[in-house]
């Protein structure tokens, strides 16, 4: 993969683009303490010897800000964790591995699989300390696919929903499938399905509740725009 820099440290161009987007979502500069293609830090056990691996400083950040950093990194396609001094011979930092990077060192690839299994990616194989974020493990490409807006193809008064759970006028006006449903499933469930299922409806209700939107379980124009799945 092509090599570039992010925050003054070496990495591959794909990972640099991811980190740039995570920085935009985070709303402040991400300070890189260790880049990729680096074998000089023994405590990393070879994690950074390939592409796709970055460490970020947490100096001066509150616990909530650190959690927000982890959330932003996971959102754009990193397996990321807050590492503590009690877990190894290192200062506190956020460790991030690009999901799907073709240049990952074998140990970094195993860390991605560990996150898929709800673990912390360390040799002790502890539980994921950020599981409460509820974010799917996805790639940079899946993030971009979910983020890119689609034009709204329906007239006012129509929405996307699971018809089996609806009655009357709502059942008649609900659209149960299509490209926007695929975007919703990619965003909330890391799924490429274009069908609005009961699982989709439950995920939509949870998403709406966290953002103080009406908890309907369907995707109307307001919810779709907040999700960024349509213009």
Description:
- This protein has 231 residues and is of the alpha+beta class.
- The protein folds into two domains: 3-135, no CATH class; 148-227, Muramoyl-pentapeptide Carboxypeptidase, domain 1.
- The protein is 36% helix and 14% strand.
- It contains eight helices and eight strands; from the N terminus they run E-E-H-E-E-H-E-E-H-H-E-H-E-H-H-H.
- The chain has a four-stranded antiparallel β-sheet, sandwiched between helices.
- A hairpin with a 2-residue loop joins strand 1 and strand 2 (9-12).
- The protein is elongated.
- The relative contact order is 0.10.
What's the quick description here?
Helices cover 36% and strands 14% of the residues.
Which strand order spans the largest sheet, edge to edge or round the barrel? 3-4-6-5
Q: Please indicate the count of domains.
A: 2
Instruction: State the helicity in percent bands.
Output: 25-40%
Mean pLDDT: 91
Over the alpha carbons, how many angstroms does the gyration radius reach? Answer: 19 Å
Report the span from N to C terminus. 34 Å
Secondary-structure content class: alpha+beta
Approximate strand percentage: 5-15%
The helix tally amounts to: 8
How many beta-strand segments? 8
Order of helices and strands: EEHEEHEEHHEHEHHH
Low-confidence stretches at least 5 residues in length (pLDDT < 50)? none
Largest sheet: 4 strands, antiparallel
Overall geometry: elongated
């Amino acid at each position: 993969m092509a090599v570039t820099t992010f925050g003054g440290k070496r990495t591959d161009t794909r990972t640099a683009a991811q980190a740039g987007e995570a920085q935009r979502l985070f709303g402040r500069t991400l300070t890189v303490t260790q880049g990729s293609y680096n074998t000089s830090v023994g405590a990393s056990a070879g994690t950074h010897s390939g592409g796709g691996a970055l460490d970020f400083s947490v100096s001066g950040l509150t616990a909530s800000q650190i959690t927000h950093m982890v959330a932003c990194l996971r959102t754009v396609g990193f397996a990321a964790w807050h590492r503590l001094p009690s877990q190894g011979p290192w200062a506190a930092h956020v460790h991030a591995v690009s999901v799907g990077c073709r240049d990952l060192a074998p140990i970094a690839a195993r860390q991605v699989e560990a996150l898929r299994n709800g673990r912390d990616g360390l040799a002790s194989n502890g539980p994921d300390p950020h599981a409460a974020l509820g974010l799917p493990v996805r790639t940079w490409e899946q993030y971009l696919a979910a983020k890119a807006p689609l034009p709204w193809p329906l007239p006012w008064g129509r929405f996307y929903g699971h018809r089996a759970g609806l009655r009357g006028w709502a059942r008649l006006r609900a659209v149960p499938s299509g490209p926007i449903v695929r975007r919703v499933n990619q965003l909330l469930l890391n799924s490429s399905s274009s069908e609005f299922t009961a699982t989709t409806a439950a995920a939509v209700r949870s998403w709406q509740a966290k953002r103080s939107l009406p908890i309907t379980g369907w995707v109307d124009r307001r919810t779709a725009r907040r999700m960024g799945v349509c213009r």
